[in-house]
Specification:
Blueprint: H1 10-13, E1 22-28, H2 34-45, E2 51-57, H3 66-74, E3 97-100, E4 120-123, H4 129-132, H5 137-158
Parallel strand pairs: 1-2, 1-3, 3-4
Helix pairs in contact: 2-5, 3-5
Organism: Effrenium voratum
InterPro entries: Ptyr_pPase (IPR023485), Ptyr_pPase_sf (IPR036196)
Pfam family, one: LMWPc
Length: 159
């Protein structure tokens, strides 16, 4: 019986874990725009760096915003197959670095407090393009580019 290479092995679907030197979690309210762009940028920029990446929302299950998909495609990155995941599906102790993309750090209290107690916690407080104008891709582009720059800074700090 041969190996089915048409589907990735389950362990290859997971893009973070003990086999990485550092694991980064990007959090946002819904995991539908800013955290998705950050996730994609860090995956793209990490090269051979041993950095695991995941993203989640305080509330998951929201479709990835079409504007985010479009502007990332302009940058040569396809996030059309990304899914919106809930932070409840992850364990804080699996991550060394937690980035709040939207200023949601203030919502991480009570049982969510452990997310702020990782080795590195940053609140990037990126603007929310759909809240500015859902049909205006210039807001998405600005946040995309700002997110890329922040991911480059983050990678430099991890090496």
């Amino acid at each position: 019986m041969g190996l089915d290479c048409s589907k990735p092995a389950p362990e290859m679907l997971k893009t973070y874990g003990a086999h990485y030197n550092k694991n980064v979690m990007f959090l946002c309210n819904h995991n539908s725009c800013r955290s998705q762009m950050a996730d994609a940028w860090l995956r793209q920029l990490r090269g051979s760096a041993s950095v695991g990446v995941a993203s989640a929302g305080i509330v998951g299950g929201t479709a990835v915003k079409e504007g985010a998909i479009a502007v990332m495609k302009e940058a040569g990155i396809d996030i059309s197959e990304f899914s919106s995941d809930a932070m409840a599906d992850f364990k804080p102790e699996d991550f060394d670095v937690v980035i709040s993309c939207c200023g949601c750090g203030s919502k991480l209290d009570g049982d969510k407090e452990a997310w702020k107690q990782r080795a590195v916690f940053q609140d990037w407080n990126l603007d929310d393009p759909p809240a500015i104008d859902p049909g205006d891709l210039s807001a998405y582009r600005r946040v995309r580019d700002e997110t890329k720059a922040k991911c480059q800074e983050l990678l430099a700090s991890l090496s």
